[in-house]
Amino acid sequence: MLYFIPTPIGNLGDISLRSLELLNVCRFVFCEDTRVCKHLIALLNERFQTSIKPYKILSLHSHNEKEVLEKLDLELFKDNVAYLSDAGMPGISDPGFALVQFALKHKLSYEVLPGANAALVALVSSNLCEKEFIFLGFLANKGKERQKDIENLLSNPYPSVLYESPKRILSLVQNIAKLEPEKELFAMKEISKKFQTSFRGRAKNLAKELESVNLSGEWVLVVAKSLHNFAHNSLCEEDILALDLPLKVKSKLLAKMSGKNSKELYQKLLLSQNEVK
Any idea where the Tetrapyrrole methylase domain is (predicted)? Predict the structure, then answer.
């Protein structure tokens, strides 16, 4: 049986009793970083007086998962096997997706345990979400792609939750403040750790506040939903195609919406037009 086991994101006490019980019987443990995993197991054994001693700890992360899974012997899963993130829920901005895919492909039994998750802690703490929300993980690191991500999150009809590094959290809030200074934001860092801190306010005010704050630690940002009426104001591809505009203009508009190459879109529109004729 394959178990996906969430790990504490700051406080060892957040590990569940069931997770400890399963780790005690898992012979093989896959993890992001074997050093982090071994250190975590040592801390758990010391704190909870357990004797977690897997036969083997194997590295499986975003840079090697394809190679590892291609060579993996299915006989291994006749034993109990665990997958651990460095911290938090596997598969949520952490490796895990490919291993679930692998299990489904080979009809392997697997189970995902509930556990610590920074996004949900921040979301509930923010009081910006009554029901629906959008989880974005990490935005693009730089350039036009990042700017497009920021513009998109500000237009979401539901509150958006995202992760950010200490190197980029200030610039992210500053960029939001330039586009929508009155946008309600909630930021939280070092969740469940000793120096857990939260910040709340309009983007323009939060940008100033963070300038004088120690930004070290992992961040979660919750962005209030857009108040625009999307049902009446949004355009779709069909709307643009129906407009009486030159093909080059249509292709540029479609490229802006989709992020695709405008020249390739123009050629497709031109081809479609010729086929109709």
Answer: 1-206
Specify whether the CB–CB gap between 137 and 91 falls below 8 A.
Answer: no
d(CA 217, CA 189) in angstroms, rounded, equals 6
Distance between CA atoms of residues 117 and 92, nearest Å: 8
Please, which residues have CB within 8 angstroms of residue 249's CB and are 6 or more apart in sequence?
Answer: none
Helices 169-179 and 203-210: angle between axes, nearest 10 degrees: 150
Listed residue (41, 124, 139, 22) closest to 79, CA to CA? 22
pLDDT 10s digits, 27-85 = 999 999 999 999 999 999 999 999 999 999 999 998 999 999 999 999 999 999 999 99
pTM of structure: 0.80
Instruction: In whole angstroms, give the CA distance from residue 100 to residue 2.
Output: 9
Q: What is the DSSP string of the chain?
A: -EEEE-B-SS-GGGS-HHHHHHHHH-SEEEES-HHHHHHHHHHHHHHHT-----SEEEE--TTTHHHHHHH--GGGGGS-EEEE-SSB-TTSSSS-HHHHHHHHHTT--EEE-----HHHHHHHHHT--SS--EEEEEPPSSHHHHHHHHHHHHT-SS-EEEEE-TTTHHHHHHHHHHH-TT-EEEEEESTTSTT-EEEEEEHHHHHHHHTTS---S-EEEEEPPP-S-HHHH---HHHHHHS---HHHHHHHHHHHH---HHHHHHHHHHHHHHH-
